[in-house]
Automatic annotation (TrEMBL):
<protein>
    <recommendedName>
        <fullName>PLD phosphodiesterase domain-containing protein</fullName>
    </recommendedName>
</protein>
<feature type="domain" description="PLD phosphodiesterase">
    <location>
        <begin position="257"/>
        <end position="284"/>
    </location>
</feature>
<dbReference type="GO" id="GO:0032049">
    <property type="term" value="P:cardiolipin biosynthetic process"/>
</dbReference>
<dbReference type="Pfam" id="PF13091">
    <property type="entry name" value="PLDc_2"/>
</dbReference>
<dbReference type="GO" id="GO:0030572">
    <property type="term" value="F:phosphatidyltransferase activity"/>
</dbReference>
<dbReference type="InterPro" id="IPR025202">
    <property type="entry name" value="PLD-like_dom"/>
</dbReference>
<feature type="domain" description="PLD phosphodiesterase">
    <location>
        <begin position="90"/>
        <end position="117"/>
    </location>
</feature>
<dbReference type="InterPro" id="IPR001736">
    <property type="entry name" value="PLipase_D/transphosphatidylase"/>
</dbReference>
């Protein structure tokens, strides 16, 4: 099934709201940041309206990321008939940004729902069909971990992915057996023949990823990483630059994008795309609940190539020759490595 991409938060919100308004049977929303502060995009009211109309509305919010959502807003949703669950574990967060409509259409990617992100570049996709069915089961596993007991979610049959599918769902789930991001990245990085492009807002790579990228560079694969020139936190800018300088030393090209780009993308050989909620950092690969898709559908890949080309054309090369890390950059990188899990 061909997907539809949205390259800013606001464009994604428009489409997500229209999908909510058009829902006939169910709305499942799992969101890292949802605070109700989206002027012109009243998700709370629309979810409330649909719940009062008898549509099954289930909302899972990360307790840390969505801390800014008022208790009053949660009670409004519950009073309307929606089920609201909070995901609350110490280091582990649900970092997903996923909306499933009628168990047939799913939005996923990097787009949170908060006014602070309105002007950000990002990437969200909408796909329908079997991928959405897999997403429902993934949502249900998190729902169960949050104490959910609705049998309509818990006891639905696990669908099968046909080998003819051109789009596949990937995740790091709550349970270890559903944590497949690392294996996915290792397989597709190692399988690259001529090029890899990675886009991430936050660059805190695992040693295994550095090693895999170094190996493919050594055999002639061109690897490019796009990070924002300026993120939403100054200390993350410093850590991004520190790791960009390390990558430049092993032959990986790093580019600084204009504006805050929150997208999470991998494109291999201009023929296999991956996108989702996962950053190239320790939290996403070791701790968080994440979700995404990968695809070789030629129309989706062509569209993704156009999007990446726009980002690359406006980006600047990382100034590897003049960058000098400070002692506290090195210390911070060392401290972050303490949170990395070993196989």
């Amino acid at each position: 099934m061909r997907g539809k991409f949205y390259t800013t938060s606001e464009h994604a919100w428009d489409a997500m709201l229209q999908a909510i308004i058009g829902a006939k049977e169910s709305i499942y929303l799992e969101m890292y940041v949802f605070d109700g502060d989206t002027t012109g995009y009243d998700f709370l009211s629309e979810l409330e309206v649909k719940a009062r109309a008898g549509i099954r509305v289930v909302v899972i919010l990360d307790a840390f990321g969505s801390f800014g959502l008022a208790n009053e807003a949660i009670e409004r949703l519950k009073s309307a008939g929606a089920e609201v669950r909070l995901f609350s574990y110490w280091l582990r967060r649900t970092h997903r940004k996923m909306l499933i409509i009628d168990e047939w259409s799913v939005f996923l990617g990097g787009v949170n729902i908060s006014g602070q992100f309105a002007r950000w570049k990002d990437l969200q996709v909408r796909v329908s069909g079997r991928v959405a069915k897999i997403a429902v089961r993934s949502f249900a596993r998190v729902y169960r971990e949050c104490g959910g007991k609705n049998p309509a979610l818990i006891f639905a049959n696990e669908p099968k992915l046909w080998s003819r599918a051109r789009t596949w769902f990937i995740e790091n789930g709550v349970q270890k057996k559903f944590r497949g991001l690392r294996a996915h990245y290792e397989e597709h990085i190692d399988g690259a023949q001529h090029s890899i492009v990675l886009v991430t807002p936050y660059l805190i790579p695992h040693p295994w990823m550095v090693a895999h990228l170094h190996r493919v560079v050594m055999r002639g694969v061109v690897v490019t990483i796009i990070i924002p020139k300026t993120t939403d936190h100054a200390y993350l800018d410093r850590i991004n630059y520190y790791y960009a300088s390390r990558f430049e030393k092993i032959g990986v090209h790093c580019l600084l994008g204009v504006g805050m780009n929150h997208a999470k993308v991998m494109l291999v050989d201009d023929r296999i795309g991956t996108m989702g909620s996962q950053n190239l950092d320790t939290l996403s690969f070791d701790w968080n609940v994440e979700s995404g898709i990968f695809f070789d559908n030629k129309h989706m890949v062509a569209e993704l190539r156009k999007i990446i080309a726009l980002w690359m054309n406006e980006a600047l090369p990382f100034p590897a020759q003049t960058y000098i890390p400070r002692w506290y950059d090195i210390l911070f990188a060392f401290l972050l490595r303490l949170f990395q899990r070993t196989p």
